[in-house]
Amino acid sequence: MSSSGPVYQVVVPSPLYRFFDYLAPAEGVVLRPGTRVRVPFGGRTITGVVVGRAERSELPPNRLKRIAAILDDVPLWPENLLALLAWVADYYHHPIGEVFATALPAWLRQSHRAEIRGAPNWRLTNTGRSADPEAFRRAPAQRQLWQTLVDAPDGLDAAVLSTRATRWRTALRALEKRGWVERHEQLPRYRAIAAPRPGPGLNPDQRASAEAVFNSRHEYRTFLLHGVTASGKTEVYLSIIERLLADDRQALVLVPEIGLTPQLVARFEERLGIRAAVLHSALPEAERAQTWLAAAAGLAPVVIGTRSAAFVPLPRLGIVIVDEEHDPSFKQQDGLRYSARDVALVRAAREKIPVVLGSATPALESLRHAREGKYRLLNLPGRTGNAALPDVVRLDMRRLASADGLSAPLREAIAARLVRGEQSLIFLNRRGFAPAWMCHACGWVAICPRCDARLTYHRGRNRLLCHHCSTDQPVMTRCPGCAGEALRPLGAGTERLETALARTFPKARLVRIDRDSTRRRGALEASLASIHSGEADILVGTQMLAKGHDFPNVTLVGIVNADQGLYAPDFRAEERLMQTILQVSGRAGRADKPGQVLIQTWHPEHPLFDALARHDYDAFADYLLNERQAQQYPPYSHLALLRAESPAQSAPLQFLKLARQLANSPEDVTLFDPLPSPMERRAGRYRAQLLVQATERKPLHRFLDAWVRALSEAREARRVRWSLDVDPIDLS
Ligand code: ADP
Ligand code: ZN
Ligand code: ZN
């Protein structure tokens, strides 16, 4: 019998909670952890990652296979990031292979080599340099190109050449043919692209915040930068990063959605004189992988990215910033349900660097940690420059008449802005024309055939759409209930609001921003540009308008239906609503003209609106924290949610009941009864869930670990699709 010798532990993309043993590709070859390899797996050859090495395998030697090929000469991940990925698999009780798949750009999950592709660049050869200018007497384009290259001994790329020489491509071919020009590849440049443009001098609060973070640059510490809207948080980030770059460190900036704030990237680039490495899921795969590799090679000083950028290797990482840290999009809602904010904290702790969580409306979890001294609180209580916080007025809709959903005071306020040439932003968090298509004779309502939900009427497309699945139906005109013809839209979405505003203000220039109006590539950028250049008078939209924009000429924000979500079943609904309204309100009066916020509500006495009127987020947070404590909800307990779904109605609940029986839960971990989900049927599947709650994290995770293993081996688990959500932010 041959001895198996050392084996490598390889993570492969599989839904199993383990890695697999392989022999070295050849006798004596040594591989380091973090190296990608090709391995035979289930009859195919796939890409995996070496994570460890062991002296022997549990497998009998004749079942051990060899690694087929090595893809990387140097490991793609350093040890500390491999450890972070292992932590993520542990904490979220998720198969390690899927954690790696989330962390790695799809292009690198294939067998591509991890090479940074340079951009082609041309320079003169020695003979070219000593060419006689007389040679170009009849070729002015060649002469111009030659002169341009004489002045650039390091060579130039296509982008620069096209700005400096005419008909340069033809000229270039001629010079190449004579052996006077040669082509080489140059690594993409991110540093020192242009001279940095200094920002405004920081005010004392900003300076104190930047100072506190910078002084902690050699240690792990979490800062909560709580600054009202337009208090200059971004300037604080820039000031810290500027100084860290001088030390040759890298910065990682996590943002909710890059597409919504193209402004932000430009601001970082101009201020720091760099090119930012931008990472988000809408990029073409090869480009995303190239950016990822440039960051991992230390070429890019600043990485700005959404969720999965939390996993990018950065050899000289000096700080992590999580902007709008309260934003729900930091939590992935399928597959590996991780929180990028929480991963960032764990990463910073492991790399012994500071992390800044910034928000005007911090998550209750973060506020509590700050109050208990676990995070250091940095406050920016006022707006910068001459800007004051907007005046917030509640409009009691029980007493006010309204036309098309707009009360008289709101209409008058918009009219006044039109006269003054200022902009108004009208917010309604519901897209489409109407949330229901209903028969006024018999009460029949169009329902999605695959979900427990109403269909939304979209007038622009003249279709009925489901916002929870892909159902898309023609609009029927005869009622299936009574055969009458009294079908009409009920309620209002942004499309209807836009129509109403156009009717009321026929001369105003309107821009609508929601998922429908921005579907086309470039449409959002065009709309934002028209707002900035003053070509729009009234902006109508959903929360896409709330996030991070700096519209200096907006002086009025109108919130059409503020009560949406006020009495929703989810325990986070009020926190979410407060954050959204406060963020939208924050778009008013950011420059030197005073802003006003008008809130249409049927519950003006609700503490949420009280706190809004006083700009007192903390007071409302106190109120919510008290409620959470009384009900033992997070942040006063820890939750995990086991979900199951199936096309068969009874299967999910049956599985969850079995899961509850299989659970060997200690006293300090509570399992609730399995229940159908609030929306039981979605996209043709029935859904149910089981909530697990614990005061302490440790016993919870010890329990979950054993439970998930038991479940993944249970036969009944194959009859449903199930998943575990640790720290769920949405219980629907
Ligand atoms: P936030 O990130 O808190 O929303 P920003 O950093 O975007 O705030 O600042 C809001 C506006 O105020 C921006 O136009 C910014 O250039 C400007 N600003 C920031 N800090 C100062 C300052 N100290 N003095 C003058 N203007 C400032
Ligand atoms: Zn009817
Ligand atoms: Zn549906």
Would you mind describing this structure in some detail?
With 732 residues, the protein is of the alpha/beta class. Helix 16 links the parallel strand 26 and strand 27. The longest helix is centred in the C-terminal third of the chain and has 17 residues, at 697-713. The two termini are 57 Å apart.
User: What ranges have pLDDT less than 50 throughout 5 or more consecutive residues?
Assistant: none
Q: Give the overall form.
A: globular
The total count of strands amounts to 34
Gyration radius, rounded: 29 Å
Q: Which small-molecule species are bound to the chains here?
A: adenosine-5'-diphosphate, zinc ion
Main sheet specs: 7 strands, parallel
State mean pLDDT (0 to 100 scale).
Answer: 93
Salient structural properties:
7-stranded parallel beta sheet; binds adenosine-5'-diphosphate; 732 residues; binds zinc ion; globular; 6-stranded mixed beta sheet
